[in-house]
Amino acid sequence: MTAHSTSLKIGDKVVDLPVKEGSIGPAVVDIGKLYAQTGMFTYDPGFTSTAACESKITYIDGDEGVLLYRGYPIEQLAEHGDFLETCYLLLYGELPTPTQKSDFDYRVTRHTMVHEQMMRFFQGFRRDAHPMAVMVASVGALSAFYHDSTDISDPYQRMVASMRMIAKMPTLAAMAYKYSIGQPFVYPKNDLDYTSNFLRMCFAVPCEEYKVNPVLSRALDRIFILHADHEQNASTSTVRLAGSSGANPFACIAAGIACLWGPAHGGANEAALQMLQEIGTVDRIPEYIKRAKDKNDPFRLMGFGHRVYKNYDPRAKIMQKTCHEVLGELGIKDDPLLDVAMELERIALKDEYFVEKKLYPNIDFYSGITLKAMGFPTDMFTVLFALARTVGWIAQWKEMIEDPGQRIGRPRQLYTGETRRDYTPMAQRK
Ligand code: CMC
What we know:
The chain is mainly alpha-helical. The protein has helices spanning about 35-40, 75-80, 85-90, 100-110, 115-125, 130-145, 155-180, 195-205, 215-225, 235-245, 250-260, 270-280, 285-295, 315-330, 335-350, 350-355, 365-375, 380-400, and strands at about 1-10, 15-20, 30, 60, 65-70, 70-75. The longest helix has 26 residues, at about 155-180.
């Protein structure tokens, strides 16, 4: 990181502020001493111009539609890599050698089972609970089951907690699904790869042999790669903020899952599919486009737009291809939802409103159709996102904890409430 400085004039006072440059992307003005020098805060709700940390993990160029994990383009990783290789890359910064990869796979695989008492913990949920509610609770509860990996000052415990979460997320996600449909939990099977194991835990039943479809397994693995990290988005920032207080890693990831659940973030894949189902047929698209453009209507085209991508979301391109592959493999020739999605995309991409605001399909636009075709119910979509994003959250949390300069995150505010006033006794209030 190279540094120079810039000056800022406030009233008649001029302050010198360091400028820091990263390896690529916009430089930042370091305002860390601004308050001490001027008595003023900066104001940026929604963090549109604020870098909250320094990171070496993921880079996005929203104007060019570029996404790099540790420097590697998402397209190359999705085509040539597998999810656990991506996990290794995000966590340790380099692609693994063959020995490192098999050792990593072995370590993750050996942590896939959850404490047997977690089964009883699950029985407390209503069967109709949203699986994201179950995930927030059960991942948070891991800290009550694995006390030996909650000391964040111990690098070994941090590593064990990381392995546990990456390994147990598929098991917990599958349990949340099985519980919701009243089927018995399926234990992990360690001779299967990560994603095939997950598919089996979701769709196998004890009374029948289950054969993993390699095309679907590869497609889902690729979907996991696409979702693995996305720099300082809302849930990742939540994990970092929670972690900055020294909270244990299971609690921090539970906080990230809670944030991801919202429809403006990870919940958009569920919302996008619901929207496509609501539109139903191609002839109703103009009505919905009109609603999306109406300032007095809160309706938005779900799966469209992104805070950072102002060009096509590179993940959406791969997701669209994967969607066609999955439908082809399953012999679904005419999916009305896919017809609606493709026509909606075609119309929106020509429409002045969407063009001018640079609103393009994002990753969630095609993921719902793909996951539905694989057999996942809508309310599991965000759970799959959480499963894949866990490694990104952990890598970012680990990077923060390992930074010797790390401090608790504590934003300030512009106070616009009442100024000081005296308490009025109850009897005198009207
Ligand atoms: N449909 C219609 N209009 C939209 C949409 C949309 N999907 N997205 C943004 N706009 C309009 C918005 O009304 C605003 O118009 P104006 O400037 O006239 O007020 C303008 O575009 C900018 O929108 P914004 O809300 O200020 O942008 P943001 O960066 O705060 O929000 C977003 C980004 C992703 C929350 C938003 O585009 C959105 O709500 N999209 C739908 C939900 C969605 O698909 N989310 C998934 C994001 S990708 C997965 C992930 O990373 O979690």
